[in-house]
Amino acid sequence: MKSEADWTHEVKGLLKGELKRRGVGYQALSEALKALGVDETPENIANKVSRGKFTAVFFIQCMEAVGCRTLHLSSDGN
Known about the structure:
The chain is mainly α. The chain has 4 helices and no strands. The chain has one domain. It has helices spanning 4-22, 26-35, 42-51, 56-65. The N and C termini lie close together (11 Å).
């Protein structure tokens, strides 16, 4: 069974992975979020991602901002 820390690490990795795949840094993400009406500074984004503690709403806003329409989760428990 996964611990809270495991889940935090997993969701943090999902967000960082999508940003990396798309070549989007925190400054560009901040600008893309602003276009959606979400005001987050690059520093705030970096802090949230570093902690791995952010809401599902923030996660979906980020996915929308970078154009992610599908997300594949590992099916092998890792």
